[in-house]
Amino acid sequence: MRLAFILVFFAAAASAHIPRPALNASALSGAAKKIVSSNSDVQCKSGFSLYNGWCLYNSAPTNYYYQDAVDICTGKGEFAPSVHNADQLDFWKTLASEVEHFWLDTYCPSAGNTYLWRDELLNCKEEVGYHMHNTGFASYGYTESGASAVCAYDPQRYVDVTSDYCSCSPNTIYLDIVFVVDTSDDMTIGLVGDATATILSTLYGLTFGTGMFQANVAIVAFAETVQTVVNFGGFRTSKDITDYSVGTGIQGLEDITSPGYYVNDTSTNPDLDADVLYALCDANCFCKDGLSVYNVANERGRSLPKGCYHVSGFSAVYDAADDNCHNMDGFVATVHDDDKNFYMISLFPPKSRYWLGYRKNGTNYEWADHSNDRTTYWAAGNPISGQDCVYGQQQSGFNSLWYSAPCTDPLKNSMPYACQLRPCGSDYDCWN
Predict the structure, then answer these.
(1) Per-residue model confidence (pLDDT) at position 245
(2) Phi then psi for 204, rounded to 5 degrees?
(3) Measured distance CA(383)–CA(390) in Å, rounded
(4) How far apart are CA 257 and CA 29, in angstroms?
(5) Least reliable range by pLDDT among 141-150, 209-218, 222-231, 307-316
(6) Residue 304's pLDDT is what?
(7) End-to-end Cα separation, the chain, in angstroms
(8) In this structure, what DSSP letter does residue 55 have?
(9) Comparing C-alpha atoms, which of 21, 9, 34 is closest to residue 272?
(10) 128 with 108: CB under 8 angstroms?
(11) Cα separation of 427 and 328, whole Å?
(12) Is the pLDDT of residue 139 over 70?
């Protein structure tokens, strides 16, 4: 399967139109801002932002009592900040100067005992915790005074298997690409030359051909008539662009572009060639027919698959579901944030039970994608000892809670499931 990508260069501006997943018409020139590969940046999970090397969620200006703040962080799979030394105290005091105050991760197990992680705080009082202020921390009753809920984690310990999805490898892009250049009176000789140079620069990053991981390229010029400059299969080198004809320009391409693919080059854009290649890479990331797609907007505003899902038409015990997904080079679908938890509901009939790729191994639960994310949505009373596998089930409205269950109980716990697969892309051959 090959996707088509058509680029149009015309007077005044240019754009790109890329419907997903079937690509049939596009127009592209330059972007207004510099595009940086996500692989070079620290990425925090949904709802968290980077703060001095830590990924933080901050509820400010909304304040909560202690237990509510704890529940918010637990629901996000993280914890409130801890203070174990002077450096950590100085660090969190700096944040407190920006958000006023927030709860710390300390509590009193019983009156007269020490707080959990501050050995020097002796004879603690029950139902009393600590707020962090910019001058230090102070004790407050759990329901005496509200404070922000700040949840934190070190992004270096968070493994996101989807971070490699849809990465960009220009020399292995496999698209049928058509460059369409406006050579009408609206375009001066200089602008035609500029467009030609941009096309040439882009082509240097591609590998030409009609095989897997090769780009098949054609060049078309239009004015009063349309001229095929280089047809598919005839492009062998980046020096093959020849003459153009003369005629009338086109307008309104911005109105037909897909979100994230319209870029404007009304001013000098030093990153134009890179922008074109990133657009080609993004267009080359897709799910095979028959799979459900979980789209998430990337840093360039384009919706790309954060996983392709084979939803089984039959129920199975967890171990059999896990084996089937591995045979597809995938795993039982995992959930690491609210959006994905909601998406999983959409794959199954209302109120259905469905397996999640989350299983107890020894004393700890482990994700099928090897993530060490701690996000959970346990229902009350769960997990249950001796029941090592986990399923989700829609509750009232659109939320889903998790329950533990035996992994191999075909009588009572055979259920549907979804296998999470990696999208096809310039960096991954999903056909073999």
Answers:
(1) 34
(2) -65, -25
(3) 8
(4) 12
(5) 222-231
(6) 93
(7) 12
(8) E
(9) 34
(10) yes
(11) 18
(12) yes
| DSSP assignment string, 76-91 | TT-B-----SHHHHHH
Query: What percentage of the chain carries pLDDT values higher than 70?
Result: 73
- For residue 94, what pLDDT is reported? 82
Name the pTM for this structure.
0.63
Q: Per mean pLDDT, which range of 127-141, 278-292, 365-379, 393-407 is the poorest? A: 127-141
Question: Cis link prior to 383 (omega < 30° from 0)?
Answer: yes
Answer whether 7's CB lies under 8 Å from 27's CB: yes
382 CB contacts (<8 Å, ≥6 apart)? Answer: 402, 403, 404
Residue 297's φ and ψ, nearest 5 degrees, are: -70, 135
Contacts of 225 (CB under 8 A, 6+ apart): 245, 247
Contacts 24+ apart (CB under 8 A), 34-41: 34/271, 35/271, 35/274, 35/275, 35/278, 35/299, 35/300, 36/299, 37/167, 37/168, 38/163, 38/298, 38/299, 39/163, 39/167, 41/299
Q: Measured between alpha carbons, how far is 54 from 37 in angstroms, rounded to an integer?
A: 20
CA distance 240 to 237: 6
| Position 44 confidence tier, pLDDT thresholds 50, 70, 90 | confident
- As a residue count, the chain comes to 432
- Judged against a pLDDT cut of 60, whether residue 371 lies above it is answered with yes
Q: 286 is written with which tokens?
A: 């897709």
Predicted confidence (pLDDT) at residue 422 exceeds the cutoff of 90: yes
CA distances from 336 to 28, 181, 291, 367 (A): 35, 45, 20, 10
Task: Say which amino acid occupies 260.
Answer: G
Single-letter residue type at 224: E
In angstroms, what CA-CA distances link 412 with 210, 316, 317? 51, 11, 9
Of 229, 210, 207, 204, the closest CA to residue 218 belongs to: 229
Beta bridge partners of 133: 136
